[in-house]
Amino acid sequence: MRLTRFTDLALRAVMRLAVAEGDAPASTTREVAEVMNVPAAHMAKVVARLQHLGVVEARRGRGGGLALTGLGRRASLGWLVRELEGEGEVVVCEGDAPCPLRGACRLRRALREAQEAFHATLDPLTVGDLVASPTGPVLVGLVGRGPVAD
Ligand code: SF4
C-alpha cells in the first residue's frame, strides 16, 4: 500500500507544527513548505484540507500563524490517514475497463482486509507519538532553504 503524496505532505506538516510551538517563531504555510522542501502551492492545499478537518488552525494577530488544534494533537493517525486518503480501494476494479472478476473476487476482499489492517496499525498512534525522539529534535532543527519550485 502506498500513501498519496497529498497525505504524505499533510503528515509532514502536522509533525512540523507539533514541534513549532513554545518560543519558536510562528509557523506559516510558506515556512512549513520550505522546511519540508515542497512547493508552497502544494502545501497551501494540504493546509486548507487540514483546516477543514479541524486538525490545524490559523491564529491571527501578534504571534499568530498555523498551529495544531486540540483535535490535531489527540487524533488517531489511522483516522487522519483514512480522512486524507478517502474511501478508495488499493486496486482499481471498476472504471472504464472494469475487471470481469470484480463481483466475485477473493483477491479484492483480501486487499480490502489488508487495507483495513494497515489503517488499524496506525489507529493507536497520534501526532505526538510521531515527534518523539529521534524525529522531534530533527524537526526542530530543520531550516528552509528558500522557496521550492512547482
Ligand atoms: S482481479 Fe480482483 S482485485 Fe484485481 S482488478 Fe479484478 S476484481 Fe479487482
UniProtKB/TrEMBL annotation:
Q: Where, by residue number, does the polypeptide cross the bilayer?
A: none
Keywords (alphabetical) are: DNA-binding
Q: Which PROSITE patterns match?
A: HTH_RRF2_2 (PS51197)
Highest rank taxon of the organism: Bacteria
Q: Which cofactors, by name?
A: [2Fe-2S] cluster
Question: One GO CC annotation, please?
Answer: cytosol
Check the record and name the InterPro entries matching this protein.
Answer: Tscrpt_reg_Rrf2, WH-like_DNA-bd_sf, WH_DNA-bd_sf
Task: Cite the GO molecular-function annotations of the record.
Answer: DNA binding; DNA-binding transcription factor activity
Annotated Gene3D superfamilies? Winged helix-like DNA-binding domain superfamily/Winged helix DNA-binding domain
PANTHER family (alphabetical): HTH-TYPE TRANSCRIPTIONAL REPRESSOR NSRR, WINGED HELIX-TURN-HELIX TRANSCRIPTIONAL REGULATOR, RRF2 FAMILY
Q: What is this protein called?
A: Rrf2 family transcriptional regulator
What lineage is on file?
A: Bacteria, Bacillati, Actinomycetota, Actinomycetes, Kitasatosporales
